[in-house]
Write a structure and sequence with these properties.
It is built from 41 helices and 5 strands. The chain has 815 residues and is mainly alpha-helical. It is globular, with a radius of gyration of 38 Å. The relative contact order is 0.03.
Length: 815
């Protein structure tokens, strides 16, 4: 009797689900009656409809459910879930909200009420619905009218506001037509109450216009939108009254935030036929307390598009007024990068919203600003956007990137189709701005997916194992933007890139990140220059990069330079096709990189070789000037040496690249492609024959782990080759299964003696796996499956594929 309410005592009991000698402990609660009860009994009491609801008992159960160390936490959670699913639990919500001492119990009670409003509102009797509505409204007024209590219970009040909005979605306007007038009227009686009412209006606008798609039917959404639009005049007058008369910063800020939600859908007359724009710029944008919220409103206004031409002068006026006020805050030549790095959180938000304003305004009204009156202001706005783009923040740069893409595309289209009466090309008018944009694009170039080694957060060079889809999307957009900028002035792009490359070679700007972004940018503009410009540019780039690779010490530095060399050369197939000696040098350099054991370098070397083989395959199969034999002949002669340090998956990529070369059967090809295919596959064929010889002596050798791995590697290589060389692969099938176990029964046929010589077997005989004792063997199934993928038609009865009447094997492949 000495323990207080909700205190716990423990005892040892035995559960039927536990062994008799393994007791477990369970907590007890003392209810208001003073009697001890287990948590199961407490749950039964709370769930009983015949007993008064014990809020104190609920507090104890909620405390156990939210305590990470309580041994009965799981059962307490189960009790709360059962209570939440009870169809009558919501009727206890008012008692919980009034008498609960535990803050989590208050939220639980409000959740019960929320669930009832969402799922049972239509079946609740009218008088009870009215009671719920009046209770929620009264509770909101009670808390929001007290400044200290509103501050202390801020989260709970926000949850109450959401509950009221859920009620409005059911009741307003049909059953609650006076809601907007009542709310506006009460807002004028108290600034504290007005502040919370603004939050309710903001939530209502978001629920109807932003989040209604998956929550309400279309007709209901349409009705709510029409009602809010019809009554917006009173709401706007309230906002205007607050912005004009209130001196309370918190109220002004929430009013601006609420107004920002409305600006996306309200009639344009409220924006341009009132003094709203001038008030936002001259009064609230100028004040540091409300600057960010006012700028948020201006972002919404500036991004409005597809409007009638009569609004163009109003947008020009807005832009000029904004620049005038902005010049008092920050100059277009200011170092925004440093200000962003040293500034507060509000300063960072300001720069981000500044990027949103200029990016949205330029994308929506670029042509509108290209007039004699505002052409200089447009250049100033672009200069601001350049400074914002330089900030070291990925999200801010992505915001700016959309505007630069639009601008470069627009200017490129105009260059392709000059406008009548144009006195000066656009690329000349904006040349100073475009030079700065090119520099920013090159310095911030995103990582393409081809690059496999990167610098991690610890500064170490590691292999890239995942693909960042956001980064890849950013790279593609930046690449298109830089290509358009290069078409506008390729000389300027070339000068910027070569200047930055010289700074890398000299060490003035040397860093892994600087070299990576520069080379990614160089690779991205492939095809944007004329052939002569590209030749001169690329020779200089490769020469400097090769010199840099020799100059730098340390495996990490060399790996970074090597990866960039491989990326750049792989991006310029047109140049490689036109310059055989350079192509040969590049490929031989790739072969050197295939022996480099640094993580990622071999992968990228193989991938680059594959890319070059696809783009330039004919150059390797035809005899080039000053060469005695086609390059592929030399390559196959040294194939074991080239691939000796590669991993199995890298060897597969290498074979795939050579197979891509052999696929070319044009009239200029004079080499014996079948012979070259046999030579390429000699190593794998010999490995297969050796394995079959071992299996002939001991059939269990086929199921050894090493043998399984070997067969898997051989099959993967053959699949890669078959897919790429096409019908040429048929000639290799004649010898692929040349050596096989002498005991045909079990693996290579049924009840047959296998002939011992090729002449007896027939030159076109290709044995396959039969299904008998080994029919369930994973190895046999895997090889059989790979044969089918490669296009080899098998026979379940063994004996191989018989030759057709004309002497050719029936392979199921095109001859």
């Amino acid at each position: 009797g000495s323990q207080g309410r909700g205190s716990r005592a423990t005892t040892t009991v035995k559960s039927r689900s536990h062994a008799p000698d393994k007791p477990y402990r369970i907590s007890h609660w003392r209810g208001e009656s003073g009697e001890m009860s287990s948590i199961e009994e407490a749950a039964a009491q709370l769930l009983s409809a015949d007993k008064d609801f014990n809020v104190a008992l609920l507090d104890d159960i909620v405390a156990a459910a939210y305590s990470p160390t309580d041994p009965n936490r799981a059962r307490a959670n189960t009790t709360l879930i059962a209570l939440q699913e009870s169809p009558y639990a919501w009727t206890k919500a008012d008692g919980i909200l009034e008498h609960a001492k535990n803050p989590q119990s208050l939220f639980f009670g409000l959740q019960l009420l929320d669930d009832a409003i969402r799922t049972r509102w239509k079946v609740i009797p009218q008088d009870q619905r009215l009671g719920i509505k009046n209770y929620v409204v009264g509770k909101i007024i009670q808390i929001s009218s007290d400044g200290n209590r509103a501050a202390n219970e801020k989260i709970f009040l926000s949850k109450l506001n959401l509950t009221l909005v859920q009620i409005l979605k059911h009741e307003w306007p049909t059953n609650w037509p006076s809601f907007i007038p009542d709310l506006v009227g009460s807002s004028k009686t108290s600034e504290l109450l007005c502040e919370n009412n603004m939050k309710i209006l903001k939530l209502l606008s978001e629920e109807i216009f932003d989040f209604s798609r998956d929550q309400m039917v279309t007709d209901k959404v349409k009705s709510l939108k029409e009602s809010l639009n019809n009554e917006f005049s009173a709401i706007y007058q309230l906002c205007e009254f607050v912005l004009e008369h209130s001196q309370r910063p918190a109220l002004l800020r929430v009013t601006l935030q609420t107004l920002q939600r409305f600006l996306t859908w309200i009639p344009l007359g409220y924006i341009f036929q009132t003094n709203l724009v001038s008030t936002l710029i001259s009064k609230f944008f100028a004040d540091s307390t409300t600057r960010n919220d006012a700028l948020d409103c201006l972002v919404e206004i500036g991004s409005l598009s597809d409007l009638p031409p009569e609004y163009d002068p109003l947008f020009r006026k807005l832009f000029v007024q904004f620049l005038q006020q902005l010049s008092f805050i920050i100059r277009p030549t200011s170092n925004i990068v440093q200000a962003f790095a040293d500034g507060s959180e509000d300063d960072e938000i300001f720069v981000q919203r500044l990027a949103l304003f200029f990016s949205g305004f330029i994308r929506s009204h670029f042509k509108t600003l290209e007039t004699t009156e505002t052409s200089e202001e447009l250049k100033v706005g672009l200069q601001y956007l350049v400074r914002v783009s330089e900030v070291d923040d990925t999200e801010i740069f992505r915001i700016s990137l959309d505007a630069w893409y639009m601008l470069s595309l627009e200017l490129y289209n105009r260059k392709c189709k000059p406008q009548f009466g144009e006195t000066q090309p656009n690329e000349v008018v904006y040349s100073h701005i475009l030079t700065q944009v090119r520099t920013v694009m090159i310095e911030k170039m995103a990582k393409p997916e081809e690059v496999l080694i990167v610098e991690d957060e610890n500064g170490d060079i590691v292999r890239e194992t995942t693909r960042d889809t956001d980064t890849i999307a950013q790279y593609k957009l930046m690449r298109e933007t830089l290509v358009y900028l290069t078409h506008l002035d390729s000389t300027d792009t070339e000068n910027i890139m070569l200047t930055k490359l010289s700074a890398q070679v000299s060490g003035a700007e040397w860093s892994w990140n600087n070299l990576n972004t520069l080379c990614w940018a160089i690779g991205s503009v492939s095809g944007a220059m004329s052939e002569d410009e590209e030749k001169r540019f690329l020779v200089t780039v490769i020469k400097d990069l090769l010199g840099l690779c020799e100059q730098k010490r340390g495996k990490d530095n060399k790996a970074v330079v090597a990866s960039n060399i491989m990326y750049v050369v792989g991006q310029y197939p047109r140049f490689l096709k036109a310059h055989w000696k350079f192509l040969k040098t590049v490929v031989n350099k790739l072969f050197e990189f295939m022996h480099e054991v640094h993580p990622g370098v071999q992968d990228m070397a193989c991938d680059t070789f594959l890319k070059i083989a696809i783009k330039c395959r004919r150059k390797f199969l035809t005899l080039q000037t000053d060469e005695s034999v086609p390059f592929i002949v030399e390559l196959l002669s040294s194939l074991p040496t080239i691939t000796c340090d590669l991993e199995p998956h890298q060897v597969e990529t290498f074979y795939e690249a050579v197979a891509c070369m052999l696929k070319d059967n044009g009239p200029a090809i004079t080499v014996d492609r079948p012979e070259l295919l046999h030579k390429m596959m000699k190593t794998t064929t010999d490995s297969w024959k050796n394995l079959m010889a071992r299996a002939g002596a001991n059939i269990s050798a086929l199921v050894e782990p090493d043998s399984v791995k070997l067969v898997t590697r051989i099959m993967k290589i053959n699949v890669k080759v078959c897919r790429n060389v096409g019908s040429l692969y048929a000639v290799h099938l004649q010898t692929f299964f040349h050596g096989r176990p002498q005991r045909a029964q079990g693996v290579f046929g049924r009840n047959k003696e296998v002939p011992s010589t090729p002449q007896q077997r027939g030159s076109h005989f290709i044995p396959t796996f039969a299904w008998r004792e080994e029919r369930n063997s994973p190895l046999v199934y895997r090889v059989h499956r790979e044969q089918r993928r490669a296009g080899v038609r098998t026979q379940s009865s063994g004996g191989g594929i018989p030759p057709s009447s004309n002497g050719h094997s029936t392979l199921g492949l095109p001859q």
